[in-house]
Every structure is written in C-alpha cells, then in structure tokens.
Amino acid sequence: MGIWVKELLHNLDKNVDLSTRIKIMEACGEKCPYTHLTDDRLLEIKDSAEDEGGFLKKLSEEWRLKLEKGQHYVVFDQCYCPLVNDDIRGASDTLCYCTLGNIKRKFAIGLDREVDVIMESTILAGDKECRFCIKM
C-alpha cells in the first residue's frame, strides 16, 4: 500500500497545482481513519472542560498540543501516518496536508469554531519534526 500511496502523491505533485492538492488532502484529513485522537475522545475532553482554556489544557495533557511562548502548536516527533511510516523515504510532503486538515477539524470540533492552522515543518519535507501552529 505504501508504494501505491507514494505513487499517487507523486502523480498529484506532477499533475495538480499546489492549491488544489492542499484542498484535496485537507478534505481527506478531515475523514482520516488513522487519526490519533478520535472525535469521540475529543468530545469527551471537550465535555469535561469548563471552558476553552480548560479544553486546551486537557488536550495538551492527552495529545500532542504544546503551548510555547503563548502560542499553541501540534508537534509530532516522527511521521505517524500508517500509509507511509513503514518507509518514509521518497514520500511526498503533500501527504502532510492531510494532517493539516485533520488538525483543523479537531480544533473546529473542540472549540466550536474554525481556526487557522499553519504547517511550519514536516518530517516528510526533511525537517526534524512536524510542527503545526494553531492560530486562534
């Protein structure tokens, strides 16, 4: 499966402009069956929190949300996507827009509003970590 996914992504890279690739992959990420934090668990965290600040605190205790210098980030220390993580060599970082879409959905559910998420770095792009900045 990993070889097929890599080929699919490379064909998207060659034949589809960046903005369309982003839209496609973000939409896929909203429905990712491999998410680390299920919608049900996210709603449990939300329901147990008194307010938005409490939700973010609880989320940081259970997930990969970090608060650094007043800014929230979702940070992954490795590529956890099972579609490519057996061998990430040669995988296109276009796949990371899937994670971007998944993160946007998590915060939309948890905060009852849309937030902007900026992909700052990804392991598939050669960085040491995947880092997504949450703009609230």
What does this protein look like?
It is a single chain. By secondary structure, the protein is of the alpha+beta class. The protein has a single domain, classed as Muramoyl-pentapeptide Carboxypeptidase, domain 2 (2-Layer Sandwich). 47% of the residues lie in helices and 16% in strands. It contains five helices and four strands. A four-stranded antiparallel β-sheet has the order 1-2-4-3. Strand 1 and strand 2 (71-76) form a beta hairpin. It is elongated. It starts with a helix and ends with a strand.
- Reported by name, the CATH topology is Muramoyl-pentapeptide Carboxypeptidase, domain 2
**Cα radius of gyration in angstroms:** 15 Å
Beta-strand percent range:
15-25%
The quaternary state of the protein chains shown equals: single chain
- Tell me the strand order in the biggest sheet: 1-2-4-3
Please work out how many helical segments DSSP would assign.
5
Taking all residues together, what is the mean pLDDT?
95
Q: What does the largest sheet look like?
A: 4 strands, antiparallel
| DSSP strand count | 4
CATH architecture annotation name? 2-Layer Sandwich
Class in CATH?
Alpha Beta
Helix content: 40-55%
The ordered string of helix (H) and strand (E) elements is HHHHEEHEE
Catalogue the unreliable spans. Answer: none
Shape: elongated
- End-to-end Cα distance: 36 Å
Number of domains: 1
Which class do the helix and strand fractions yield? Answer: alpha+beta
